Amino acid sequence: MLIGVIADDFTGASDIANTLAKGIGDEGGLRTSQHLGVPRQDPGPDEEACVIALKSRSIAPAEAVAQSLQALEWLRRHGCRQVVFKYCSTFDSTPEGNIGPVGEALAKALGVRGVVACPAFPAAGRTVYQGHLFVHDRLLNESGLENHPINPMTDADLRRWLKPQCATPVGFVPAGVVSSGPEAVRTALEAAAGRGETLVIVDGIGDADLVTIATACAGQPLVTGGSGIALGLPRNFIRAGDARGSAPQASAVSGPEAILAGSCSGRTREQVEYHARLHPTLALDVGAIVEERLNPEDVVMFLRENEGRAPLVFTSANPAMVGDIQARYGAPRASAAVDGFFGKVARHLVAGGVRRLIVAGGETSGAVVSALGVGPLAIGREIDPGVPVLLSEAGPGMALALKSGNFGAIDFFDKALARMEAAE
Ligand SMILES: Nc1ncnc2c1ncn2[C@@H]1O[C@H](COP(=O)(O)OP(=O)(O)OP(=O)(O)O)[C@@H](O)[C@H]1O
Ligand SMILES: O=C(O)[C@@H](O)C(=O)CO
Predict the structure, then answer these.
(1) In this protein, which residues make up the domain named Four-carbon acid sugar kinase N-terminal (predicted)?
(2) Considering 189, 208, 338, 354, which has the largest number of Cβ atoms within 10 A of its Cβ?
(3) What's the complex ipTM?
(4) Whole-structure pTM value
């Protein structure tokens, strides 16, 4: 195994799996699979990159550290050459964690300092300049992410945001150094390590910067960041002759379909609204879900009755509506109820023969995929930046798409269903 990724949520895991499987241009990427939780089985003989999807973004820091170290242990046991800690391109975390505690714990276990921390993902509009995170042309804290139901991001200054999460100083490598090339980045990281800095925020404005940073990281035991940080990592191994460069798997899965959206992100709400103009769509009453007055089987019936017409059910709501629900029931109770509900719906759907399933939202995807208990997923073709088709071999086989809240074109849901069916 060349690269092992520890991802802090499920959609984030498929985002970076997509990047590793795709690689750059014609060079191809690595043969990649996505595992849900720390695998119980050994990796397949052909796996060059293994992505372990945890649900550790929003849990207590000590638990996130423990799970991440367990994942690291599995990766090391299977000879993994480079570990990547994948977190959100919008740096979702709180003053307590979990990016700092997990990043530092992995660095300590691997005996390294001067470790890259770069959430940039330019294809999705996330860039880092002078240590500040932008979402398209807005600072992170003015981008809507300051309203996130679980991790409100209220400061775009990544060094300032990360500092209280860390036990050691946070370093910085500015854009000027990155544009000087991989050797300059390597020297800057070594200097940071010398000063005792464990996590080092590195500027990244475009894909070329990310390739420079990845080149500088060749041979480094640990890299951390958003999926963009993985852009140039397969190339290091391909150029060294350790991998041949391969293409993601074609899917060709047809059959009954369903779309579940629990994400309240702005982009998902736009996609839901757009989809509703052309397809059967049902808004779920979140109060009724929390109070257990809504029966999952009724929702399943709606979806099954509308098979072939791309039916969608959603709890996606604007910040004011989410605020009302959270004030009424408490955020953890509301989230647990909604996530659990989607899990039950998904189980019924798959047991009833649904073979193409789209889920919007990281927490929602985690709940759904955990409820389904699917085994390792192969990485199929990209639907939109950061979202591939995922293929499960279990049973008759099925295709999944786990969409991060803010990813995807306006017609993402239709595109994803079509992509799953495409043989090429
Ligand atoms: N109407 C609602 N009111 C309150 N909470 C909700 C509502 N709908 C969904 N939720 C909760 O909000 C959370 C949304 O998080 P989720 O990670 O699924 O989406 P996201 O944050 O948009 O996606 P990502 O993490 O991929 O960016 C979930 O825990 C879900 O249970
Ligand atoms: O990095 C991102 O933005 C996504 O992969 C993600 O993790 C959103 O949950």
Answers:
(1) 3-232
(2) 189
(3) 0.97
(4) 0.93
